[in-house]
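Worked problem 6 (solution included).
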Amino acid sequence: MIRDIVIVRHPVTVCVPVNHKVTLSVRAEGSGILNYQWFTDNEEVCGGTQADLIIKAQKTQLYVCRVNDSFCNCVFSEWVKVKVLDIDKSGLPVQWQGEPHIAVNPKPQTVQQGAKLTLRCVAFGNPAPHYQWYRNGQPLQDKTSDTLQIDRATAEHRGSYLCSVSNVLKERWTEPVDVDIVQNDHLPCAAPTATDKVALLIGNLNYSNHPGLMAPIMDVHQLANLLQQLGFRVVSLLDLTREEMLAAIDKFIQLLDRGVYGLFYYAGHGYECSGRNYLVAVDAPQPYRPENCVCVQRVMLSMQKRQTALSVILLDTCRKWYNQDCIPSAIMPLGPSGNTVYGYATCEDAEAYEVQDGGKSTGIFTKYLNKHILQSEKVTHVLEKVSEDLGREPLVTGKQAVEIKHTLKEPRSLADPVRTTGHTRELHLRDACWRRANALPGKKRLMFLCGVEVEVSFSALFSNVLVAFATVKTTGPRTQDCSIALSSKPVLEDTFSGPDRSDDMDNLLFKTSNNPDYTLRLCALQKLKESLIIKVDLHYTHTESKLRLTESLQVDIGKPLVASCKLYKINHTVTACKQEGASAQTMGNISSTKPPLHQTQDVPCRPFTRKAECAAKVAVTRSNEPEENDENELQDFTFGH
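Solution. The predicted structure is:
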């Protein structure tokens, strides 16, 4: 019996970038062997005689497939369109599977009442995406194309607009944009907004093979607090190895997206080579190679690829030149995206300084950065004020001068508001990831057998430095002279205590504590691979027997703060930078009499460099143009002894 040909799966319309490879598919059932012939614009496609047609999309065209059997029966599939857009496709994943990818976002607008309002959103998709526009969170009826057009705008059309873009694979949302309807001829520019603000701050000070620093503690802590006031989600980390720096930067990049403001700050040793800036990790050997450090231009390149609305890198580090007679690496430029800002603490082939005055330490650049950063001005204007103040600083006259490089094409400020109307899935993911990296353990109340009650609480000085406080809340009926000791399992080394360490971390502790009976500082949480156990030892004298007794209880606080991000998972070549097995130290009897690192007793205020000495250097004249998109590093680059 001869069966009719039935097409069980029709091809689907797609929207792709130019030169993208597309597969159109049809599936049919019938009697005997079925033959296929594809057509475009009523012409046969040469070689298109299979159920699957693979084409390299060059221009927008219509396609249809004819299916016939040996009994002179034939049917045609539905017509489908291969829509080709010759627009920016940066950010499209290499292994793109067809999920919606927004290539053009709508823009904020201010239009005159009675004029035409047009908002446009364009997305790639396979199948072609479906559009649904929203105003103030409510879907707009019949507004289901990539362009929303209102011929005569009135006051009721004022509001926040966004568009949902979806196909069978996924749903995406544009960032919300504001539309204002005005009645006069003066059309003010819409104020820039961010869909989110994310900042990663890294301070390296306790180096294994290079001079230690002091100021990054206060620099990072104070800047983190100020950025939080500006609405940034901040992760602040101290003393990272190269592998840990790369892992933290990778997590930071994942939090960036279209419309997000991203800020990366580093304080520590650094240098410049072939127009590139390198950040020296705490485990960098002496002498070091580029592969022991982190290339700043790679960080900016990764930020640009995420299509951020503003990408800022602030470097409080030296830029001395080393080995400039080597062959420069190849530069693979990224198409100019704009809104990138570099703020350097010093100019090329110069050093950046920190200053210690008594117990206070600060990088001179960051000192003035923190003074101005809360101002609601264009970010480059803020950096210009920093430059002017630093230029008047007598300690570094003729030694250090701020340098600013940027491609800012909009008046964006770090104080710009965040528009969260119509929360997107990406925003929820960023929020969950950030909260996980900053989650503090809750307070714990422990009741000992002797009747003593102890409260254990926690505070985060940095995202990888946790402080545990223990306080006796009530004493038992037969106890006196109670004292507490805290310890951790596994043991986490306190790298900020000792005769050669700065007092700055201790000063932060005194500001955050409320006279606890015992304080335990837990550092380098990024290395934690298991749950952290806090052991509480209670020592007391029994009032009747007069014996000195001890009771112990334990608290499991899981993986707090950045430990939950598991940065160690890509940490394959980390070298230990401090001796293992050191116990965590109490902060109950901290001495504040030791001199700061590098401080001389007869000089009350003196600047010290953030240059990591490596080897003999040869300085040469180089271009002042920023090479922002350095993609390759010389693996055979070595420093002389």
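Discussion: Residues 326-331, 571-604, 615-641 have pLDDT under 50 and may be disordered.
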